[in-house]
């Protein structure tokens, strides 16, 4: 009990009983039962973990039918983004990504003194002519986040692979699949297929979303054989805790929790999109654990955010993405979602 209390004190806003956390895309059903009820020998936490993380890499390799020798473990996928960009992006080099992509890529690019450019996105699609124009500037790295955050769009594997086939092999491709487990193509994602076949390619995954392990900070990268030595050399020793690595192994075994999570999120996504559309507001929630909402004006977006804040809801207003008129609302437990639905319905009627 004391251990649980201490963890609670480390979580942003968790001690505030009036706050409802729908701003960080966390798992609405929590972590798997196998983690919560697991008996861990905490006396061994005085020892360093296996620096190779062979057991975790083997478990990931077996689950996704990929070579464990091409897997790099990370302290969340954020660390893997950092490792990748520090390894491959030099001052003056160029990283290109679709407009409104996950902000970590632009932040790290700016810190490294590199150039960041964007590809237009039209109704969730990257048009071949826009990609061709972006590639003509010879980017060193091209990032494709799929499903996208914060827009919530999804590109099917066949279309994604077709897009990537038009990109020259000297450009490094990063396929960020943080939300892959929510998609219908979970067993054969585009990212894994691309790394199977293409040099200079990386697929990023995380345990934070569908597996409910955000607090343990655990991610992994599947890397083409030509890039693996360079990226692995940048990984710090013991960058993943023993507890996190073990939790990851166990989480992969709990297919039932994964299924419940994805079905729950898809269900609430449909309900919320339907609610917003009933009142003439654009919204999307395609294979993610949040809904992206686009209002007609920044003022209306702020009004809805303030109303939800006054009811205790923490939600994300997307000013950092230059989307001041948009909100991103994550999914929480059923009681929270029913309250959210009621509050939103009242506010949208006003």
Automatic annotation (TrEMBL):
InterPro entries: Aminotrans_II_pyridoxalP_BS, Aminotransferase_I/II_large, HistidinolP_aminotransfase, PyrdxlP-dep_Trfase, PyrdxlP-dep_Trfase_major, PyrdxlP-dep_Trfase_small. Its cofactor is pyridoxal 5'-phosphate. CDD domains: AAT_like (cd00609). The keyword Transferase applies. The keyword Transferase applies. Keywords: Aminotransferase, Pyridoxal phosphate, Transferase. Residues 20-342 form the Aminotransferase class I/classII large domain. It comes from the Bacteria. PROSITE patterns: AA_TRANSFER_CLASS_2 (PS00599). One of its GO terms (molecular function) is pyridoxal phosphate binding. Belongs to the class-II pyridoxal-phosphate-dependent aminotransferase family. Histidinol-phosphate aminotransferase subfamily. PANTHER family: HISTIDINOL-PHOSPHATE AMINOTRANSFERASE, HISTIDINOL-PHOSPHATE AMINOTRANSFERASE 2. This is Histidinol-phosphate aminotransferase. It comes from Klebsiella pneumoniae. The lineage of its organism: Bacteria, Pseudomonadati, Pseudomonadota, Gammaproteobacteria, Enterobacterales.
């Amino acid at each position: 009990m004391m251990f649980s209390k201490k963890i609670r004190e480390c979580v942003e806003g968790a001690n505030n009983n009036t706050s409802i956390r729908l701003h960080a895309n966390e798992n609405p059903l929590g972590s798997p039962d196998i983690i919560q009820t697991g008996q861990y020998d905490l006396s061994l936490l005085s020892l360093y973990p296996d620096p190779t993380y062979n057991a975790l890499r083997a478990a990931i390799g077996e689950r996704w039918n990929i070579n464990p020798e091409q897997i790099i473990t990370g302290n969340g996928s954020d660390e893997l983004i950092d490792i990748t960009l520090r390894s491959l992006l030099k001052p003056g080099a160029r990283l290109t990504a679709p407009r409104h992509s996950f902000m970590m890529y632009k932040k790290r690019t700016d810190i490294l003194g590199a150039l960041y450019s964007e590809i237009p996105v039209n109704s969730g699609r990257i048009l071949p002519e826009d990609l061709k124009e972006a590639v003509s500037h010879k980017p060193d790295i091209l990032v494709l986040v799929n499903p996208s955050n914060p827009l919530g769009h999804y590109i099917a594997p066949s279309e994604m692979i077709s897009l990537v086939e038009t990109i020259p092999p000297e450009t490094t491709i990063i396929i960020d699949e943080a939300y892959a487990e929510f998609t219908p193509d979970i067993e054969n994602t585009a990212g894994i297929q691309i790394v199977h076949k293409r040099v200079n390619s990386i697929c990023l995954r995380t345990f934070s979303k569908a597996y409910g392990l955000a607090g343990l900070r655990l991610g992994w990268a599947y890397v083409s054989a030509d890039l693996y030595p360079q990226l692995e050399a940048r990984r710090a020793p013991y960058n993943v805790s023993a507890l996190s690595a073990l939790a990851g192994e166990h989480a992969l075994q709990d297919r039932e929790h994964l299924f419940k999570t994805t079905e729950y999120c898809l269900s609430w996504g449909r309900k919320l999109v339907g609610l917003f559309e009933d009142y003439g507001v654009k919204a999307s929630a395609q294979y993610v654990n949040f809904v992206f909402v686009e209002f007609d004006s920044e003022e209306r977006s702020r009004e809805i955010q303030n109303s939800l804040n006054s009811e205790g809801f923490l939600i994300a207003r997307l000013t950092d993405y230059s989307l001041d008129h948009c909100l991103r609302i994550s999914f929480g437990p059923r009681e929270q979602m029913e309250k959210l639905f009621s509050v939103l319905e009242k506010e949208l009627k006003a």
